[in-house]
Design goal:
The protein has helices at about 30-45, 45-50, 150-165, and strands at about 60, 70-75, 90-105, 105-110, 130, 130-140, 145-150, 185-189. The protein is of the alpha+beta class. The structure holds ligand NB4 and nickel (II) ion.
Length: about 190
């Protein structure tokens, strides 16, 4: 099981590389990688286990963050109001060779800003992303998917896909006016 010691931190060149495309059928190694990345998210979203293993909670995790420069990311976006435990996640899958095939002109940004398991410092500010995207990817079985995502799940997937292109969230924050967002940005909280 991945622990925080396994997470690569900003400064490690692997986080600034373009990750390699993955071949299908998945190797045993890549299947194991997918499983362990999703497992990290599930464990980190369980308050007791998160505390027990001293994890930072996550809703997404990209392969370069565990030192593997391959185009794979696990995404587990729970419903925003998590009082109903067994409500199904807004988006849950391991996205392989993801491609954003279309994106809204309108921006979306998390009201709280963003963080990253690979960035130990807080970097305040809005991270403007596309509010809606059409995402094409393959899952661990090689099945092709084309999904339209908006708001929270769209933000998470864009954060993860950025990692596969060597981009970190703070690259998008306006240096002079960090809490300024483009006209018409949808604020998501
Ligand atoms: C928004 C949020 N970001 C958390 N952490 N950061 C991450 O996930 C980074 C990726 C996210 C940062 C902004 C967009 C994508 C990890 N990244 O570096 C991967 O590239 C959270 F933990 C979190 N939630 C809300 C849901 N809650 C359910 C119950 O368990 C706790 C959990 C906390 N929401
Ligand atoms: Ni991140």
């Amino acid at each position: 099981m991945y622990l925080m010691k396994d997470i690569t931190r900003d400064g490690n060149p692997v986080l600034r590389k373009r990750a390699a495309k993955i071949e299908f059928p998945l190797s045993e190694e890549d299947q194991e990688l997918a499983k362990k990345m999703m497992e990290y998210l599930e464990v980190s979203q369980d308050p007791e286990l998160c505390e027990k293993y001293k994890l930072r909670a996550g809703v997404g995790l990209a392969a370069p963050q565990v030192g593997v420069s391959k185009q794979m990311a696990a995404v587990l976006v729970p419903p925003l109001d998590s009082d109903d435990e067994d409500a199904k996640p807004l988006f849950k899958d391991v996205i392989i060779n993801p491609v954003i095939v279309s994106e809204s002109v309108q921006y979306g940004a998390l009201t709280e800003g963003e963080g990253c398991l690979s960035v130990d410092k807080d970097v305040p500010g809005y991270v403007p992303r596309h509010d809606r995207i059409t995402l094409r990817y393959q899952d661990v079985k090689g099945e092709k998917h084309q999904v339209r995502l908006k708001n929270y799940p769209a933000i998470v997937c864009q954060h993860e896909i950025d990692h596969l292109h060597g981009v970190l969230f703070y690259d998008h924050i306006n240096k002079e006016h960090p809490f300024e967002a483009p006209e018409g940005t949808i604020m998501i909280s």
